[in-house]
Automatic annotation (TrEMBL):
Function: Part of the ABC transporter complex LolCDE involved in the translocation of mature outer membrane-directed lipoproteins, from the inner membrane to the periplasmic chaperone, LolA. Responsible for the formation of the LolA-lipoprotein complex in an ATP-dependent manner.
EC number: 7.6.2.-
Keyword RNA-binding: no
Protein name: Lipoprotein-releasing system ATP-binding protein LolD
Lineage, highest ranks first: Bacteria, Pseudomonadati, Pseudomonadota, Gammaproteobacteria, Alteromonadales
Length: 230
């Protein structure tokens, strides 16, 4: 299988006034198209930092990220934004839905931004909301939805552009265990159905073990072997 995303020798140090915090040290790995991987690490291990670097939201101090064979640091901001909007989807612990818009409008938003007509965008958004089991909640605003429903809207929004890659940062961290598991398996099932590559970062070993491959992040180093001591 082809590599969709390659991290080459990534290091990240934050400079905060006088002090330096080394967060990632020479992290290298590849993710094949269609693969589901988890990056497992305890709090503060650098998971979000790594995810932001992979998604082009932050830059490494050293090393580079290749997406579809292209080094993302060599892209013009306009081209990187286009890739981020059309080929990547992001899901966070908190849903980040827009409160004044309905579920349907929230999910249609990435398509509208991409220049698709309102009628087509709403048609696609409706299909995606049906896929996550929310056909009966199209007109509800986020405040009128449960936590699990909001996260399902966020999943629909991340997948509506049919991105090549979905990146999720503790996507169920804000939900109770049972709802979290249900939302997670939905996310995995839809990614499989759409043949989407899926990277999740989490501290939750149970969730991580549901993926094809688990990488562990410890003291800034990534290990391919699952580490029972985490
Ligand atoms: N902008 C920043 N400036 C300085 N230090 C930072 C910055 N962002 C993150 N850090 C530090 O880098 C380390 C890794 O942070 P990161 O958010 O990547 O960890 P994480 O594994 O996602 O943690 P959590 O599971 O708690 O969200 C932490 O020690 C954090 O305090």
């Amino acid at each position: 299988m082809e590599d969709l995303l390659v991290c080459q020798d990534i290091s990240k140090t934050y400079h905060d006034g006088e002090s330096d915090t080394a967060v990632l040290s020479n992290v290298s790995f590849s993710v094949s198209a269609g693969e589901h991987i988890a990056i497992l690490g305890s709090s503060g291990s650098g998971k979000s930092t790594l995810l932001h670097i992979m998604g082009g939201l932050d830059t490494p101090s050293k090393g580079r990220v290749l997406f579809n064979g292209k080094a993302i640091d060599t892209l013009k901001p306009k081209d990187l934004n286009k890739i981020r909007n059309q080929q990547m989807g992001f899901i966070y612990q908190f849903h980040h839905l827009l409160g004044e818009f309905s579920a349907l409008e929230n999910v249609a938003m990435p398509l509208l931004i991409g220049g698709i007509s309102r009628s087509k965008a709403e048609e696609e958004a409706k299909k995606m909301l049906e896929l996550v089991g929310l056909a009966h909640r199209l007109e509800h605003k986020p405040a009128a939805l449960s936590g699990g429903e909001r996260q399902r809207v966020a999943i629909a929004r991340a997948l509506v552009t049919e991105p090549k890659l979905v990146m999720a940062d503790e996507p169920t961290g804000n939900l109770d265990h049972k709802t979290g598991l249900a939302v997670y398996s939905l996310l995995k099932d839809i990614s499989r159905k759409l043949n989407t590559t899926f990277i999740v970062v989490t501290h939750d070993r149970e969730l991580a073990n549901k993926m094809d491959r688990v990488l562990t992040l410890q003291d800034g180093h990534l290990q391919a072997l699952d580490n029972a001591s985490l």
